[in-house]
Amino acid sequence: MKEQLEKIEIEALEQISLATDLKHLNELRVTYLGKKSTIQSLMPMMGKLPSEERAAFGQLINGVKTRIMTKVEEKQKELEALELQRKLEKETIDVTLPGKDFRAKSFHPISIIVDEITNICLGMGYQVEEGPEVESDYYNFEMLNLPKDHPAREMQDTFYINENTLLRTHTSPVQVRTLLKHNGVGPLKIICPGKVYRRDDDDATHSHQFYQIEGLVVDKNVTMADLKGTLSILAKKMFGEKREIKFRSSYFPFTEPSVEVDVSCYACDGKGCSICKGTGWIEILGAGMVHPNVLKMSGFDPNVYQGFAFGIGVERIAILRYGIDDIRYFYTNDLRFLNQFSKER
Prior knowledge:
The chain is α+β, with helices and mostly antiparallel strands. The chain has helices spanning 2-17, 22-33, 38-41, 51-90, 109-123, 137-140, 172-181, 224-239, 292-297, 314-322, 335-338; strands at residues 127-128, 134-136, 160-162, 165-167, 188-197, 209-219, 245-252, 255-264, 281-290, 306-313.
């Protein structure tokens, strides 16, 4: 058996030294050291030997196994080093070549306006709130003083998934959800940016989807003066420090009183031009004081708390800011259009 073990050892060491890859080496390890190897098959013979020879036989087998395992480990390190070297040679990088330009090529104009308005409002102490685009009729209309069959719903005809589920027509449901979370206790000061949907023809000035940013402030002793001061700051930050705003009476079911907000024309300083259609003013958003019914339904006492809200159409601001003549450009993914905004940030 000693001669047989020596023969196995010589053969194993030779085969291991000739291994060309890690897979081949592992196969040799299993062949010579595995449970079904020749060495392992000799172990039961130990019991047939005289007791005084068993220890020497055990030492002999263990010595052969140890030397083979040592050779396997040495060869493994050698093959791993060779494999790494081949990989490095294959993936050699020419450091003299110019690097890739990973800078953002351009930002979408809608993203630019959303971020700008958001940053302005954050500077005034607002928090950002978001909500689902697939909304319930309850939050989208009823909680905003628009009960079923209310005629004002026609202005916000939208896409219904079923009788009580729809694509939201404004981000006002986010305001309602936030009011409810406050359990009738103010103050709160939030903006709600996001995509909204309305059933409309797609043409140069209309789209079935667009972006809104709505603002809401609820606290004690809030007045229209607070609303006008807030929107004046917003207009100056967006269109220039010389801009002024004015209110025109309007109607929204969820605010009372309601106003349309105009800003003095940035192109002609209010003198009258083609952009403002000779009036000197440009309509930019709708606003008003939160209707007492909306406060009541959200758990607030209108005798204690008052609030104001405003809604900005992001595409409208972008159209005015950049002189864009077709709202559909925002959604056609035309790089010729988008690359014009590469220097906006």
